[in-house]
Amino acid sequence: MSPSSASKRRTSLFRPCIDLHAGVVKQIVGGTLGTDESLLKTNFVATQTPAEFGKMYRENGLTGGHVIKLGPGNDEAAREALGAWPKGLQVGGGIMDSNAQSWIDAGAEKVIVTSYLFPSAKFSLERLKSLCEKVGKERLVVDVSCRRRDDKWVVAMNKWQDLTDMEVNKQSLDLLAEHCSEFLIHAADVEGLCQGIDEDLVRRLGEWVTIPTTYAGGARDVSDLDLVDRLSHGKVDLTFGSALDIFGGKQVKFADLVKWNKERS
């Protein structure tokens, strides 16, 4: 690669999120999600509505953001967010072939799927193909959120509590990429902790992915965008959560992330 072509390579960008729990925008420590609400650790509960967050992202030209429904009771809140920016946000949480198209009709740019693809925690290529046929490859994002096990990463489902039979690697990502247009990857072990990204995972994703990919988990400083850009060679985008000022954090300013994107896109 020549120096001139290298200088023109894509740069990693900030991608926004709206995490919904019990109908409210929240920031939650990912590893504590489960059936026992008493174990749930919450970093932030918003006073603003989901629609207000959607409007903020639209007004700042932030594309590729995801709305994640963490459990039941979030459908109305998700529709509010989508209504504030039709075709500007993706939606995930409980997505399956029977409801995916209804979320596209409700204004989602794309639908995000995880657990449906893993009946009894075992990957079903048949289900992925079915969903792809229903909404179209260009409308489908596969959430390969994972937990680290030794020197490997294993896809986790059901609020990141159950490990599946799929390892995140070049082979599995290539297979999935045949039937979707994008990946969303939460590093569940560091999600919500603001203690730094999983650098090893981001580096490997930069080597493995062939389609647009957003990483979430542990981001704590605007410089993490530069770090992800360097580690992934611009192939992976970054989501900020609990460290961000709009989510009650003190480490990262939303305005700085907007500025980063505008200077590089």
Unreliable spans are: 1-6
Averaging pLDDT over every residue, what do you get? 92
Q: How would you write the strand order of the largest sheet? A: 3-2-1-4-5-6-7-11-12-13
- The general outline is globular
- The rounded Rg comes to 17 Å
Helix-strand topology string: HEEEHEHEHEHEEEEHEHEHEH
Strand content: 15-25%
Major sheet characteristics = 10 strands, mixed
- Counting H and I runs of at least 4 residues, what is the number of helices? 9
Distance between the termini: 22 Å
DSSP, total strands: 13
Structural class based on helices, strands and sheet pairing: alpha/beta
Helix content: 25-40%
Keywords:
single chain; alpha/beta; 9 helices; 13 strands; disordered N terminus
